[in-house]
Amino acid sequence: MTRPKPFRIGVIADTHGLFDPAIERHFKGVDRIIHAGDIGDRSVIERLKNIAPVIAVAGNVDDEEPSEFPSETVVELAGYRIGVRHIVYEGGKLRKDAQAFLDRERPDLCIFGHTHQPKVERFGETLLINPGSAGPKRFKLPRGLGLLIINKQGVRPQLIQLDSAVSRRKVAEPAKSL
């Protein structure tokens, strides 16, 4: 008897226009990718789509131009309701609009970004996950992304630290089509 394959979700936020080549390695074989805002450049989403289908929301950096992405969304994947919005915490406190979103939507999981601080914690029945920033290093915060492994035992979040030395000069250019 074969076991059903776990459903794997790559979780990313705060790329700020930077596509680190390590993302391809860490997200290899994922079923979906969720980008929790501050995309910074449409090419990041295009590169992620080469790995797996992408669900994305706009962040405060993405507000400078009209965005094709909503400010928040809820999707159902592998039997779980997953809320996605860029800002949940600000100044170390849960924002009122974020709490209203969580109360209204009651997601099992909520993926967010903005603070650049990796975090996995519970808010009532909701598991909150911030993968940290996969974009250029800021302050003394680590760069990172995340994986969610969903199987019959439940959801297992995994935070992955990225090399802090990546710069825009070291980023691989997208392959040119012939």
Name a few traits of the molecule.
single chain; 178 residues; mainly beta; Purple Acid Phosphatase, chain A, domain 2; 5-stranded mixed sheet
What is the highest CATH level, the class?
A: Alpha Beta
- Distance from N terminus to C terminus (CA atoms, Å) equals 44 Å
- Read across the widest sheet, the strand sequence of neighbours is 3-2-1-11-12
Stretches with pLDDT under 50, minimum 5 residues: 169-178
The total number of structural domains is: 1
- Average of pLDDT: 90
Portion of residues within helices:
10-25%
Tally of contiguous helical segments: 3
DSSP, total strands: 12
Main sheet makeup: 5 strands, mixed
> What is the CATH H-level superfamily?
Metallo-dependent phosphatases
Structural class: mainly beta
What is the subunit arrangement here? single chain
The backbone outline, from C-alpha atoms, is globular
Give the SSE order as H and E letters: EHEHEEEEEHEEEEE
Q: Rg from C-alpha positions?
A: 16 Å
Corresponding CATH architecture: 4-Layer Sandwich
Instruction: Give the percentage of residues in beta strands.
Output: 25-35%
CATH topology: Purple Acid Phosphatase, chain A, domain 2
